[in-house]
Specification:
homodimer; about 220 residues; 8-stranded antiparallel sheet; 6 helices
Chain lengths: ~220, ~220
């Protein structure tokens, strides 16, 4: 159903297209103002969705398409939220390798699908975030080896350290801080790095923007 | 570090206590009003945290303790958010079986830890939500069998149908609707049902409260 609705055909190999491989995101943006509806409608109407499909819901908005397009749209959205100067949260779910819903429409071993890690775009705006990364393959991949999840997770954490966004580990999540673009790119990169060896990978990112408790940190960052 | 900070001892079996087994939640509550800070402080200060440990952060708040206490506190919190009549979102991460952070402090096979599924408490308030459930064990359990994730997921979905909250599947998430208490209890129950065969299970739930687009649905529900 997902595959049909995204216009790919069953004759195509599932890794051939991002939508055929179930590459997409769900996002919930919350703006702490009485005027939230107008603010969100304005931001979402301006959002560049080139290369992406969108389905808007009352709980979240689904975006499907190539990871580089998703990263661009998510950074644009978070930057616009930050520019409102309102305190806002952005809750993101990233998924690849499991089109369909309760049951994956792809059998294990249909992937993985390698993709280049897109470069971050800096925004000059600060974000604090909590990040979870889930390699979900529970069967051996095509080459007959079970994926080494911890190796993949460590590669993702090392990448976060390289981007300078890694701030340590908390219960059930990794803390990220820095430029909005770097924070979102860290989650996308980790998702893709694990996706090189695991077909089905999801990642959850909760981003806090313009929090009153961030002012001190932002000054501290500026002073460095 | 997590285990030490929660007062359990290494001589104790990891499944002996909820905190030793890493049972907890992270929650991010967003209230769409300029007055969000006062509203949240009031609600959180009134929250009954009996049996739970709390660590407050700028992105989310961590609660650790027995699943029945977590469910009570999460339903209380969501009900209070709904009673403000403001549009609000509540983003939840549930985790059990992996205390510690980047690396689990428990080896595979230290669990699973069976727990009774707590009964829902009805609130009379409506919630729409998107739910993800992740069995994360990637090694065989103590009895030598690999966990059957799909069997566990189906059991969780069947439980959601039984509670009447299941509304169908969307990309990367299952849609839940109904009384706030039933919606949260559905996610907690699914997390526990999968946890009967899998040591490390996480679940993410994004809840929308008092959304303008919910009014029609609430009337429809009332009419039935």
């Amino acid at each position: 159903m997902t595959i049909a609705s995204t216009g790919t055909t069953t004759s195509e190999h599932p890794t051939a297209t991002p939508l055929g491989f179930g590459v997409g995101a769900r996002l919930t943006a919350s703006v702490m103002t009485d005027d939230y509806a107008r603010v969100l409608v304005e931001i979402l109407s301006r959002l560049d969705l080139t290369g992406l499909v969108r389905e808007t819901g009352d709980v979240s908005t689904y975006l499907g398409g190539h990871e580089s397009h998703l990263q661009r749209a998510l950074i644009d959205l978070a930057e616009e939220l930050a520019r409102t100067e309102h305190h806002a949260t952005l809750s993101l779910t990233l998924s690849r390798g499991c089109p369909g819903e309760v049951v994956c429409e792809l059998p294990g071993g249909a992937g993985p699908r390698g993709t280049e890690v897109p470069e971050p775009r800096r925004t000059g705006r600060y974000a604090a975030a909590e990040w979870s990364l889930y390699p979900l393959a529970d069967q051996v991949s095509e080459d007959g080896t079970a994926p080494d999840h911890m190796r993949d997770i460590y590669a993702a954490i090392d990448h976060a350290r390289a981007l300078g966004t890694f701030r340590g580990s908390e219960h059930f999540a990794t803390r990220l801080e820095g430029d909005i673009g770097d924070v979102i790119a860290t989650a996308v990169a980790g998702w893709l790095l694990v996706g090189r060896s695991v077909q089905h990978v999801t990642s959850h990112l909760t981003i806090s923007l313009n929090s009153p408790s961030h002012e001190v940190r932002e000054l501290a960052e500026g002073a460095r």
